[in-house]
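Q: Given only this backbone (379 positions), what sequence would you predict?
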């Protein structure tokens, strides 16, 4: 069977036109699909890139949010740190101000104290200067005294009197004591026999000593030594002849040199003069050795006075022993009285106990015996 179409038929034309249109639409759709496929294939990398870009944008946004949070934390931490730093700086500033105030106050006190001490030292210096001026005047006066022989003798006697009065009791010495030969000793020590009273005479060979110290040439030294030796020997001889008297004074005497320098020079370089004094029983002493000698004499005086008082001491000891014996006897008697009193107290306690017991029986009407049998009085 064959189909034939009549092109003059409108329906056929319409059907043919519709088919053509349909075919054309399908062809266009096919072409569009192919174009869309090609377009999709072409835009796939772009979509992936856009997707990655979107992820990056999201990541960047998240990073921005985290960065904003971090910045906020950093800002808060910075603010807190700034506050702590400010507080620490203010506290440190207060401490520094307080320390500076205390330091300034301490410095002011130290300065005031230093000024006060300086003022005291200046006052002490002024006082020392006054003392130095006074001492200078005293030295000049001493030089004037030493330049005069009589004044120099008085100076030695005054020094001797000061030493003796410090070393011995007042009744143990006498100044300017006159002996039986009419000679007057500067000091007489009342020692018991033996050795007996001993005289002390003050001598001061100052001119000879100063000449010895001032000598420069060998000849001057020899002459000054001879003069010094002769002066001291003359004094030793005079003391031995004037102040050693048999059966009146001790068999020796003391020569007082009021200068340690003269004494040291004499013993260092003039031993023959010292030995001469020993031979004549004249003992040369300085202020220091004189004090030691007088202390020895004080011990001798104390021992002698104890021997003198030995009889009185024995009598006092005998009386003390009798007093002790009487005291022992009276203590024994008192002890016996105490013992008797103790026994009496014990008896009184016994009687009181019995009386208390009988009173208790009377109070409770308890009687061990008939009323007719009255008990004997308890002792």
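A: Predicted residues:
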């Amino acid at each position: 069977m064959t189909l034939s179409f009549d092109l003059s038929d409108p329906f056929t034309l319409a059907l043919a036109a519709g088919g053509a249109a349909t075919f054309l639409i399908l062809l266009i759709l096919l072409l569009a699909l192919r174009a869309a496929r090609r377009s999709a294939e072409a835009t796939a990398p772009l979509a992936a890139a856009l997707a990655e870009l979107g992820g990056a944008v999201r990541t960047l946004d998240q990073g921005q949010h985290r960065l904003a949070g971090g910045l906020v934390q950093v800002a808060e931490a910075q603010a807190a740190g700034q506050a702590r730093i400010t507080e620490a700086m203010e506290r440190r500033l207060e401490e520094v101000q307080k320390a500076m105030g205390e330091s300034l106050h301490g410095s002011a006190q130290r300065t005031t104290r230093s000024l006060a001490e300086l003022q005291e030292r200046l006052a002490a210096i002024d006082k020392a200067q006054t003392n130095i001026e006074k001492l200078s005047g005293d030295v000049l006066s001493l030089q004037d005294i030493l330049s005069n022989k009589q004044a120099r003798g008085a100076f030695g006697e005054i020094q001797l009197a000061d030493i003796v009065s410090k070393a011995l009791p007042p009744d143990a010495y006498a100044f300017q004591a006159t002996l039986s030969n009419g000679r007057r000793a500067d000091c007489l020590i009342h020692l018991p026999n033996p050795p007996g009273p001993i005289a002390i005479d003050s001598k001061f060979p100052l001119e000879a000593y100063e000449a010895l110290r001032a000598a420069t040439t060998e000849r001057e030294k020899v002459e000054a030594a001879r003069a010094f030796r002769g002066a001291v020997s003359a004094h030793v001889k005079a003391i031995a002849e004037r102040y050693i008297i048999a059966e009146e004074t001790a068999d020796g005497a003391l020569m007082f040199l009021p200068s340690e320098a003269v004494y040291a020079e004499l013993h260092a370089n003039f031993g023959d003069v010292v030995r001469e004094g020993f031979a004549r029983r004249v003992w040369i002493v300085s202020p220091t050795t004189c004090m030691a000698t007088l202390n020895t004499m004080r011990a001798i005086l104390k021992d002698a006075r104890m021997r003198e008082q030995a009889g009185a001491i024995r009598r006092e000891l005998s009386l003390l022993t009798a007093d002790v014996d009487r005291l022992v006897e009276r203590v024994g008697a008192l002890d016996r009285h105490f013992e008797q009193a103790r026994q009496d107290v014990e008896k009184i306690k016994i009687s009181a106990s019995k009386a208390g017991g009988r009173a208790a029986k009377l109070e409770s009407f308890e009687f061990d015996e008939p009323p007719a049998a009255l008990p004997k009085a308890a002792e």
